[in-house]
Amino acid sequence: MxxxxxxxxxxxxTDLYLQVLFTKxxxxxxxxxxxxxxxxxxxxxxxxxxxxxxxxxFWAHRFGxxxxxxxxxxxxxxxxxxDENP
Length: 86
Hints:
- It is a single chain.
- By secondary structure, the chain is an all-beta fold.
- The chain is built from no helices and 4 strands.
- It has one domain (2-72).
- The chain has strands at residues 2-10, 13-22, 26-47, 52-72.
- β2 (13-22) and β3 form a beta hairpin.
């Protein structure tokens, strides 16, 4: 189990990720703040179950914030710079 991890991705905008108390498959807390290149309509999604205890996604114009508790770990390595099928 790892304690904290910060990640920055730049793909159609800038995303800053934070993971706290996580393993290869599960995380106690995950959060993301995004600033996108393309504006969008306001969006709010609150969900529970299906691989997570509690999760919130909010997006307004170009700003987005996502966070979740006790959910599956976000994994971007399998899509980053890889042209092979997952």
